[in-house]
Amino acid sequence: MINKHYTVPELAKILGISRVAVFNKVKNGQIRAEKVGRNYVIMDEDITDILQKSLTTADRAFIRKNVKKIWRDYGETLRLLGKE
Q1: Closest CA to 51 of 78, 22, 80
Q2: Looking at the whole model, is its pTM more than 0.70?
Q3: For the CA atoms of 55, 60, 63, 69, what is the dihedral angle to 10 degrees?
Q4: Can you tell me the distance from the alpha carbon of 40 to that of 38, in angstroms, rounded to the nearest whole number?
Q5: Quick one: how far is CA 14 from the chain centroid?
Q6: Residues 6 or more apart whose Cβ sits within 8 Å of residue 53
Q7: Residue 29 — left, alpha, or beta (φ > 0 → left; ψ -120 to 50 → alpha)?
Q8: Are 34 and 74 in contact (CB under 8 A)?
Q9: What is the overall mean pLDDT for the chain?
Q10: Separation of alpha carbons 16 and 18, rounded Å
């Protein structure tokens, strides 16, 4: 099995923060990363942990509320698209 990994710029884009901020978090040990050559890579399984830690309870509630609204408003359309 090939492990998917992300670079510092890719993770920065996912988190919506700068590359420098991600690099600083790697250096401080807040984000686990492996050094490959001159670059750092973050493994796929660590991304889930990072994302869960970066979401506040309010963020999760906001996401849950909006997913329910989208499902209520577009549920039939989503079901039909899923059949294609």
Answers
A1: 22
A2: no
A3: 180
A4: 7
A5: 5
A6: none
A7: left
A8: no
A9: 84
A10: 7
- Residue 69 CB coordination number (10 Å): 10
pLDDT of residue 64: 85
Summarised one tens digit per residue, pLDDT across range 21-34 is 999 999 998 889 99
Asked if 24 and 17 touch (Cβ cutoff 8 Å), the reply is no
Q: Which residues pair with 6 in a beta bridge?
A: 42
Q: For residue 53, give both structure tokens.
A: 């830690």
Q: Does domain 5-83 have CATH number 1.10.1660?
A: yes
Query: Phi-psi category of 25—alpha, beta or left, where left has phi over 0 and alpha has psi -120 to 50?
Result: alpha
Q: What whole-number percentage of the chain has pLDDT above 90?
A: 25
**Mutual angle of helices 44-54 and 8-15, in 10-degree steps:** 30
